[in-house]
Amino acid sequence: MTTSASIKLSVLTGKIQQALHQVFAEQTWWVVADVTNHSFYRQKGYHYFDLVEKDEYSGGIVAKVSAVAWGNGAIRISEFEFVTGQQFKNDIHVLVRVSVSYHQVHGLQITLLDIDTNFTVGLLEQQKQQTLLRLTTECADFIRKVGDRYITRNNQLTLPRVIQRLAVVTSGNSAGYQDFKHTLDHNLFGYTFVIDNYFTVVQGEAKAELVQQRLIDIYNSQVPYDAVVIIRGGGAQTDFLLFDTFILGRAVAKFPIPVITGIGHQKNETVTDMMAHTATKTPTKAAELIIAHNRSFEESVISARQQILIRAQQMFSGHFQSLSYLNSSIINQARNLLAAHKEALHACNNVVLHTSRDILLNNHRDLITVSNAVLSKPRMMVSNRRNDLENAIGKFRSFSRLFIQSKRGQVAHYDTLFKLMSPANILKRGFAMVYLDDQVISNAANLQPGAHIRVVMQDASLEATVNTKTNNTHE
Predict the structure, then answer these.
(1) Measuring CA to CA, how many Å separate 251 from each of 149, 151, 428, 442?
(2) Coiled-coil intervals in this record (predicted)?
(3) pLDDT of residue 235
(4) 168-182 pLDDT tens trace
(5) Contact at 8 Å (CB) between 82 and 97?
(6) Which residue among 55, 151, 176, 237 is least crowded, i.e. fewest CB within 10 A of its CB?
(7) Mind listing the pLDDT tens digit for each residue in 106-164?
(8) What angle do CA 125, 126, 127 make, to 5 degrees?
């Protein structure tokens, strides 16, 4: 075993401290890194965390160093959280100004001196702008940009005059959902709403597909919803990255039912807000918007009713005056007409009285003449008709006698013919009738040798069997 000069550990760490101090003293660097292993001691206001750099492609850690923030650094972190709305925690990407030091007990330390709020906000904004550009490029058939506004299929839909049936996409334990429902249930106007809940996770960029699936479930339900409401409570800016995703922005933009958002983001507008029919800041504001929409319709109905009442009163007053004038005119004209017609009736009555006497006398004479003619003319007509009837009877008797004699001769002729043509007379002349299967046959077409036949003659009936058949040839 060889012996060599040795030094104390404190001497070695002192040399390390001196060497690092000579290189890093009074120097600071702006570093881009991710935050991990963060812990915060609220009583002292100290932050302890690791800064890491990850491989762009594999995600593996390329570099890692422990860091701390206190005093000024802790104050800058508080300002960062206030400005961005983003809590300083694990897995956020930051640009920080740090100093390097070495402590003989605690070792190498990175101290956070400042944090760039614009870097974090700008990075998120850049990602959002890239998403919006992709939406307008890949979904140009239902998304287009006009000025600073995005025109989508969804925000071109018309809200029903009254919103009553709602599909709500939210987290089941969300305080924002409770605020939304409380506002609707306790509205001052007594409106009632039918709410179907489609609960899901509404936090975390990777959960966008879950929210999209709930929209698909709403569509497949075939329920005629008046609107779909997407809500969640407040939170840090990165908690809203889900609503800046391409997949959810596209789904909302083309959804066939008006979408109202109340995501709880007070400062910035998300991509989902831009694609939706109507965007509000909070769940409570979304509920107030729905109530105000229904109230607007009710006020328009009340206003229309009031206008109808006023117009009806005006029309009634105007027509009442017209009717009063017409009534006076009718009464006066009626009096004048009655007086004029009364005089005319008196004149007509006198004319009728004198004229009717003359007419009655003339008609009385005419009636006497007609009565005499009527009494004499029927006797002559009856006598003429009686003579005509006697002549017709004579003609009928002579014609019927001749007709009966003619028909008797025809019957006798037919009787003679029937007797000559009867089978008995035919058999007497030497003819015979041949039967096959009890049916008379007139030719031998159906007879074959061996067939059994019956031959009927005048005085006998013969049973025979056909032995041969010779067809006669007729020229």
Answers:
(1) 18, 14, 113, 96
(2) none
(3) 54
(4) 999 878 788 899 999
(5) no
(6) 55
(7) 778 888 999 887 777 666 677 778 888 889 999 999 999 998 899 999 999 999 999 99
(8) 90
pLDDT at residue 274 is higher than 60: yes
Asked if residue 130 and residue 50 are part of one domain, the reply reads no
Give CA 7 to chain center in angstroms.
87
Q: What total of structural domains would you count in the chain? A: 3
Could you tell me whether strands 107-115 and 259-262 are parallel, antiparallel, or unpaired per DSSP bridges?
A: unpaired
> What single-letter amino acid sits at 77?
I
In a domain, 387, yes or no: no
Higher pLDDT, 414 or 195: 195
pLDDT for the residue numbered 416: 80
Whether residues 92 and 141 fall in one domain: no
Q: CA-to-CA distance for 209 and 178, rounded, in angstroms?
A: 24
Q: Are 262 and 231 in contact (CB under 8 A)?
A: yes
The CA dihedral of 124, 128, 130, 135, to the nearest 10 degrees, is: 160
Rounded to whole angstroms, how far apart are CA atoms 269 and 124? 12
Q: At what angle do helices 283-420 and 175-185 cross, to 10 degrees?
A: 70
Contacts of 162 (CB under 8 A, 6+ apart): 226, 294, 297
Tell whether 372 is covered by a domain.
no
* Tokens matching residue 158: 């018309």
Both 149 and 284 in one domain: the answer is yes
In a domain, 102, yes or no: yes
Query: Are residues 47 and 143 located together in one domain of the fold?
Result: no
Look up residue 148 and give its two tokens.
């600073």
CATH label of the domain that carries residue 214: 3.40.50.261
Residue 91 structural domain: 11-115
Report the C-alpha gap between 94 and 474 in whole angstroms.
Answer: 129
| For residue 186, pLDDT beyond 90 | yes
Find where tokens 């020229």 sit: 475
Which residue, of 89, 115, 141, is where some domain finishes? 115
**Do the strands 29-41 and 93-103 form a parallel or antiparallel pair, or are they unpaired?**
antiparallel
The answer to whether 288 and 167 are in contact (CB under 8 A) is: no
105 and 149: one domain?
A: no
Question: Do 164 and 275 belong to one domain?
Answer: yes
| Dihedral (CA of 433, 437, 442, 443) sign | negative
Cβ pair 94, 35 in contact under 8 A:
yes
pTM: 0.51
CA dist., res. 231 & res. 116, Å (int): 30
**Domain annotation covers residue 438:** yes
| Domain boundary, last residue among 296, 316, 341 | 296
CA 331, chain centre distance (Å): 61
